[in-house]
Amino acid sequence: MDIAEALVWRCPNATGDDLQHALQPVPSPVPSQPTGDRNPYLAFREHLAWDGFAASNGLHDDARAALVAELDARIATVAGTGFIITPFGRADALSDALGFASSGGIWVKDETGNVARSHKARHLMTVLLHLVTAELLGLAPWRSDDERPSLAIASCGNAAIAAATLALAVNWPLQVFVPTWANDAVLTRLRALDADVVVCPRNPGGPPGDPCVRRFRQAVDGGAVPFSVQGTENVWCLDGGRTIGWEMVAAPDACDRVFVQVGGGALAASVAAGLGSGAHRASKGTGAPQLHAVQTASCAPLERAWQRAGALGGPALAAQHWDECMWPWMPVGESAADGILDDETYDWLPVLAAMAATGGTPVVVVEADVIRAHDLARAHTAIPVSPTGSAGLAGLLAIRDQIDQHERIAVIFSGAAADRPT
Asked: Looking at the predicted structure, is the pLDDT value of residue 44 above 50?
């Protein structure tokens, strides 16, 4: 697809019931250090696909930078903070607790202080920038705020709150499709952010898969914009997610492995894309770290796809065997890391490819490791992470006996716990 085309969300071959197609941003080389801007959308702006789209349609450089700054200021009025390059450094006490040497250890990327208290808004910001740019340049079919189509997302957690936060900042209507078991506190927060919450019961006799995703897709087919953190539904979310990996690449210490918790897969896909493209890695003689995608035993469709792809010719041929590799996990069990219980790993293809390219593997963790990881994170860091947010650390615990004490391990604490003061 041409970068200049507006409002292209999915692969054009994804039509009707045939949604087994995926777009990805073209890889972009990243300098060894970002600019001095604290906002990642300014620090890495020239490497974002969104910026290429805006430039290709005639929006000059100063106007592009000003648009990012203006949107960020509006978001900060709703969220209490704008976007910042988040901390990434060695967690000394946690490293000691898990028996690492001083030359190794655990490096934590802390997303809990980000907009809406998780990494999810990173993905949605580039979707929003694309929308606002298309509107500004007259590339959108609507001509006034009153004619704007609704945004839509299927989520009952951090992604929904991030979507509602950004939508309110620009006064854009948003529908959030949630399950019947959605947390009351989350629903209250969504309604306080002016989101239209749509509860989606699961029909016992209905088709497999998430009923919220089905209702979301029906809304998109009816004209809503997929304001989604699933790259298969809106490829622009993978653009902004890469900033996490780019920030990690810019750090002075190169890591040997990265453990990333996986639900829908956009976080792992985006981080892998960012980590795989750092110019200073080559200068250090290092490649991208081994990627380990972490899921719980309660719901592990990605690990199943990895095994199936291996039996069908390997990850390089996985896209040709989508039906045979990726389908809804049934029944989905329970976990304290409930934010990664997506019954499908929607962005599974780039995650499989990244694991294969880096020599990584999926890791399936038992619930005891999920709980222990969260306890360790809260006891040995000052980060108010949730059990979902620390689930990558559970993957490290599961294979700790396979990892040398001198290895440098990266994990992403992707979201804050609900008990964090607001």
From this structure: yes
